[in-house]
Amino acid sequence: MNASLVEESWTRIESWLAVHAPAARARLRPPALPQDIEAAERRLGVTFPPELRASLLRHDGVELEDGTPVLAYYGPLSGVDDIVRSTEFLRDVGADLEDDEEEYDEDARDEFAYWPQERLLITLGIGWQSSDGLFLVTRPGRHHGRIGRYFDEDSPSFTPWQGLGDLLADFASALEAGTRFDGRIPLAVDGVLIWDDEQAVIPDPVSVLALAAASEEPRPEPVVEEPAAAAPDGFHAVVTWSRTEEPQPVQPDVVFVAGVSPDALLERLGAVPESARPRTRAQARLSAAAPWAAYRPLVRVGTCGAWSYATQEAGEPQFDRPEVLRRLTRGTRGVLLAKRGPEVRVTVVEDGIPVPEAAHLVESPRVDYTTGPDGQIWQAIGVDPWPGSTAAYTRLLAGLAVDHGIAWHPDPEGEEPAASALLLPVLADLRPASGHEVSSVRDFDLAGLVARTPPERMRAATAAQLVRLAAETGLDAHPEVSEALDRIGRGEPVELAADGPLDLRMRSLAAETRATRELLSAARYEPRPQPVTDADLSAWAARERAAGALRAFVLLPAPQAAEAILHQRMSAHWRTDLAADLA
Known about the structure:
583 residues, alpha+beta, SMI1/KNR4-like, 3 domains, nine-stranded antiparallel sheet, four-stranded antiparallel sheet, 17 strands, 40% helix, 14% strand
């Protein structure tokens, strides 16, 4: 215990706040009264460690109002009354768990028990409530005075701080040097202390799409007929027992489009040209599961009377996305049959506009879970979890012949090779600007800035912020993006046509992010090392988000574009950059 370290740290904190954040300094409460601390100790039945007592005698917590200083995500420091109130509340919550924690020894109780009687909550967490925050151990022993973190949705855990003095010293150092505290950067803005995130990404993430391009598409193993075994001499018999599970019917998502050729259908879906070739359904699904596909959707196309159709054989569902249906039915009519667990849906779209009166939706319960006599939940293996959906798909598919003249069945279609390709999924729709009022972003009054700044000046400053974001994330390493940024800098319009170079680059970035995420997710069950890491995923995701901000700049008004860009800035000092860009 080091009460002098507490005093020294508070002096440093007060000095920094007085100079840089006087409004925050004014919200530090006066010292607690010694008799109030003693009354709290009697009420709670514990003795406050010397460091906690010294801190409370310097400041009885903070005023819980806007502009009060907080310890990043750990929240504001509690005063005596806050400590008593939070501790009594958490003791009540933890009382029901005491029997389950009887096997803990004293050291384990300090760290792992939900809320031991000797623990005090000394901050009020993110929401300024007792649901999370920092705790302090009061029980004599090797953990006496130690600081831990409590969160109501997770197990408590100790922090590296051995005492409140260490915590306050690190807080003071973060203020003085502008360095991380609890992973965030302290900033003084308009007289108050705020916290923001400082991020960085690796400059050259591993490309899963490049790895896929360098790999071979798998081919089916040739079927080799085994010679018949010679029958043994004399009488013999072979008895076997087996249980044959009925295979589930093939029921892919399928979309029919009138007056469009299969090749045009592939183009509208965003096919990757170099992946296009005839495949059977078995070949398509084999290829889609291989590294060659990089987790991209794979579709097959064909004709059915006056309609062309596409079936999705693998990957994230595409056909029911509004932006995809608009592309598919541009100038024509489309019919979609899609199955999603409990739901089977028929959607009819005319020139990009859904026709509600022609739609059908069937919902069915899940049946593969059952509750045993003891209340335990059991899952049946090898059964159809949604038999109602399976039957509904068959019924609605038959109805397409009556309603739309579409007589199609997936079984014979899948056995024959059909034109197919991987997809580079089209971009999702941007949130429309109308009806969305820009207010604040990262605790910054963006609405106020927009109101007092001439539109041309706001647009120019937003463009400068976009250039900074592209540099931070590595987005400007792509030539299509670099060219667009140059045009923006010259005040020239940027072409963002569907399937144009910039659009394809943005779609590729989204595909890189998804492929990297899926590969890392699958790697959790693989003992061998993978070619990508979490750092690669962070880098691709940052580029994808920055590309979305560029798209917002091109397509949305300046206030909405500024909101998208500032939200993605990786430097915690973007406010200083923005002030310079506005000057």
